[in-house]
Design goal:
Blueprint lengths: L2 H8 L3 H9 L6 E2 L5 E2 L3 H14 L4 H8 L21 H44 L2
Antiparallel strand pairs: 1-2
Length: 133
Amino acid sequence: MRIGELSERTGTSVRSLRYYEKKGLIFGERLDNDYRDFGETQVERVRAVQFYLGLGLSTENIAGIINCNGRDASLEKDPETNEECEGLLILYEEKLSEIDEQMGSLSEARSRLKERIALFQEHRDGTRSGASR
């Protein structure tokens, strides 16, 4: 399939797909007419790239993940047997820890905002009831 069809099927812009290809995240075969032809497997690779970008991973990290022996390591049944992907578990654990920290910070910020909202509402309600007396 050509890059436009890959874009339509994945909901990813052509510009992003060209960037992914430049970074070695997806691969298209050059045809005689100089067009790129992307196989069906590239649809899943694009989705994997989008997933990992959504986690906040860099394209370098993503390349290491999806290029482990040419397969998406997240789909491997036993990634520990793949020596090239040895650092993948560490990367996942670090990312999980980072997300947990962010969730803790967000939870704390949420609690503080709820407290401030409650104070403002009490003040507003007290002011209204005092004004009607």
